[in-house]
Amino acid sequence: MFLANKRILLAKEESSYGQDPTPTVANNFMQASNIKVAYKGDVLERNIQRGNLSPVTPVIGKRWIEVSFDMELKGSGTRGVAGKLGDLLEACGLAETVSVGSSVTYAPSSSTMKSITLYVYDAQDSGSAKLHKITGARGNFNLSLEAGAIGKISFTFQGIYTVPADVSEPGAPTQESTVPPIVQSSAFSLNSVTTLIVQALNLDMGNDIQASDDVSSAGSIKAFNIVGRKPQGQFNPEAVTVATYNFWSDWVGATARALSIVIGSVSGNICTITAPKVTVDNVDMSERSGIMSHDLPYKCAVNSGNDEIQIQFT
Q1: What is the reported pLDDT for 124?
Q2: Per DSSP, what are the bridge partners of residue 204?
Q3: Per-residue confidence (pLDDT) for residue 126, from 0 to 100
Q4: Mean of the pLDDT values across residues 145-171?
Q5: By the 8 A CB rule, do 308 and 274 touch?
Q6: Residues paired with residue 38 on neighbouring β-strands, in sequence order
Q7: CB burial of residue 286 (10 Å; 0-12, 13-18, 19+)
Q8: CA-to-CA distance for 188 and 167, rounded, in angstroms?
Q9: What pLDDT does 5 receive?
Q10: How many angstroms separate the CA atoms of 70 and 92, rounded?
Q11: Is the pLDDT score of 37 beyond 90?
Q12: Nearest to 226 by CA among 242, 206, 246, 245
């Protein structure tokens, strides 16, 4: 019997695309939740005219693996040292810049896209396990921030198909000691206005991931590539007077505004998210706990290049 709570996820950056760097429990364990593995493939129907109306057995064409999971939004606990999220964010098209003793910053890249290998172990009580191995994985993430909750990043990766294997259980991982900050006292700012009361904000990186089909590759896929991105999200401030903030003026004029939010207050575990040019798609009225509010979908645009969003840990 395989128990869901015993599932173990490992992730490690590849030095060459699709080459397994052999992640280990000791160094590459990911403290994830809601881990899901899906084996995907194109079902090829064989519509053969054969003298009757009965269908012929289909075959599976292109094959790949999709892995999704949630991670807590937190730093390493030490300023200027990359945390466990680093390899995952890089495999979602972000570039990592480390300033030793100061900060670790992630910003979009348009070249040199990293990839990772993922191991997912399904363990049995007998000491054996089933290993799902995914190489050449690249993906997308959705960041969710809600007042009074732990910030969450939901990842979805696509990678090269490998047949699962029965293996020995990898051993118990060491849990991280860094505790994620709560989304509170988070200094939300839009166009330098800091008085808006926002209950939740989310950001979808919006990566466009495409398979490179290849007749010479097993599974008919050579690689997965990030070929574009459209970061976007939504936030929901309580309604204010037009004089306090004119959302309609921003919307009609497609006026780009700077947005930022800071989560955490302990050194090494502070996350600052900024978007220099945010435009509102529409202005919807709603209510939250009997109080009028807005649902504001937004898009992130480039400022000077590869800077439509930035995630920095300090």
Answers
A1: 84
A2: 142, 232
A3: 76
A4: 96
A5: no
A6: 66
A7: exposed
A8: 48
A9: 85
A10: 14
A11: yes
A12: 206
Task: Summarize the confidence of residues 287-301 as an average pLDDT.
Answer: 96
Instruction: State the Cα angle at 159 between 155 and 161, rounded to 5°.
Output: 135
**How far, in whole angstroms, is CA 116 from its chain's centroid?**
13
> Per the structure block, which two tokens stand in for 98?
């480390």
State the burial class of residue 77 (Cβ atoms within 10 Å of its Cβ: 0-12, 13-18, 19+). Answer: middle
216 touches 224 (CB < 8 A):
no
Contacts of 255 (CB under 8 A, 6+ apart): 249, 279
Tokens representing 234? Answer: 């939504």
Residues 231, 233, 237, 240: is their CA dihedral positive or negative?
Answer: positive
What mean pLDDT do residues 166-187 have? 94
Contact 81, 104 (CB under 8 A): yes
What was the pLDDT predicted at 2?
Answer: 82
- Give me the residue label for tokens 């800091």: 194
Identify the DSSP state of 2: B
Local structure of 90: helix, strand or coil: helix
**Residues 247/280, Cβ–Cβ less than 8 Å:** yes
Task: State both tokens at 240.
Answer: 């204010």
First to last CA, the chain: 43
| Token pair 């590459």: residue | 28
pLDDT in tens, 109-120: 999 899 999 999
Distance CA 266, CA 77 (A): 8
- For 277, the enclosing helix (H) or strand (E) is strand 271-280
* Average pLDDT of the chain to the nearest whole number: 96
Cα-based torsion angle of the residue sequence 276, 279, 285, 286 in order, rounded to the nearest 10 degrees: -50
Reported as a single tens digit per residue, the pLDDT across 240-286 is: 999 999 999 999 999 999 999 999 999 999 999 999 999 999 999 99
Q: Are 225 and 112 in contact (CB under 8 A)?
A: no
Q: What is the C-alpha to C-alpha distance for residues 257 and 251, in angstroms, rounded to an integer?
A: 11
120-134 core/surface letters (b: 16 or more CB in 10 A; e: else): bbbbeeeeebebbbb
